Amino acid sequence: MNFTSTRNNDLRVSFSQAVKDCVPADGGVFVPSEIEDLRRWIYYIDNKTSFTSIAGSITSALIKDEFSPIICETIATDAFPSEPVVRQLDDKLFLMELYHGFTGYHRDYGVSYLCSYLEKTLQLKGEKAVFLDFSHGGLGVLLAKVLRGKKNIKAVIVYKKGTVRGLKDEDLVWNGGNIYPVEMEGSEAEIKAKISEIFSDHEYVQKHNLTIANTTNVCRLLGQIFFFPYSFAQIKNKIDSDIYYALDSGNYGTLIAGLYSWRFALPVSGFLVPSTSALCADPTGTPILLDSFANPSTRENISPIQPANIERLESFFDNNKLMMRNFVYPVNVSEKQRDAAAKELFTKYGVFADMETARSYATIKERGEEIFEDEGAIVLMANNHPCLSSDFCRHQLGEAPEMPADIAETLKSYALNKKVISSASELKAIIDQQK
Prior knowledge:
Blueprint: E1 2-5, E2 8-14, H1 15-21, E3 30-32, H2 39-42, H3 51-63, H4 69-79, E4 85-88, E5 93-97, H5 107-125, E6 129-134, H6 138-146, E7 153-160, E8 179-184, H7 188-199, H8 202-208, E9 210-211, H9 218-225, H10 227-235, E10 243-246, H11 253-263, E11 270-274, E12 279-281, E13 287-289, H12 309-317, H13 321-325, E14 328-331, H14 335-349, H15 355-373, E15 377-382, H16 390-397, H17 405-410, H18 424-432
Parallel strand pairs: 5-15, 6-7, 6-9, 7-8, 10-11, 10-15, 11-14
Antiparallel strand pairs: 1-2, 1-3, 4-5, 12-13
């Protein structure tokens, strides 16, 4: 499978190269240049097909020209600590819980898959790599868990001062682990700008094999594509109609992953998403990507540290408003609608919902009736464990879900007791130490 750039359709690179380079030199973001047709395989999977089996089959289909089927299967088998859970709430309504990983967030699957891919392929090539990422705390503790025992990957994780959490002493590089946490002075925007400055030095990035763990990285994004064929396999024998997904916008990584799944021939009829300033609908209901009004050639280069899935959406639809209107349904959701949706999920189905899941369910309340009348089915995607939004649940429902012990551990503050840095040059000095 080859990849091209959102700003240069003539570019062709392999999957491995796209993962290694993070972003193309033209300042765009990598997107697939062609999509495999998995139709025959998709219709053979069912509710007995495991998540890792689906991930392994898709991995093999997409990168079979670079790695053997055995390697592809091993990447998937070693990647995931648990499967998502798909529950039937009503005749045509299903809930997909994506928070059964290491830290209670859906990103656990994508990051774990990325790390498994890198570990296996770097070992084959006799190479090593270093993650350089900003974290509010969660990504750092996730990488610490996923990288335990790995030999070919280290991670330099940059935090605002005082926000390190969830780490164990044995995770740290100076104790034999794979994580080098760094506290930096400044605002989040200032810190990210310094990290972006490092990534702008392409020679330095290549020398140290630097990469990132957010969805700008195509491998991290691929790990989210698996959600859709897995949910289809779980419900296909319970329905005989169109399938829609209701999901929160986030950084649009899951939405673009779902659209790529459709390109693989997965039977998906559309996506309900809450409107945002980046993606909304005009008075006729036609979706609008507001960034599209600016020509890509006049935009600043994309930084790997900032997920760039809106530009991927632009590339996917290629200014085809009719096609976009038939697949993406932005819905205006007020706080009142969100709160009412959270209450209904709890009283009607016994489901605790965080704000994002409640917003997604509110889109079903607004647009779902016409889908259900046409005998369509909807999968509501719950990205994050509701215990991570205990205050919201308690305020809306009068009670909150119990927090699992392993998630509670990830939230504990960690005193780093290291020098706080303030510049890109200091950060580079730390990266230089990672061998």
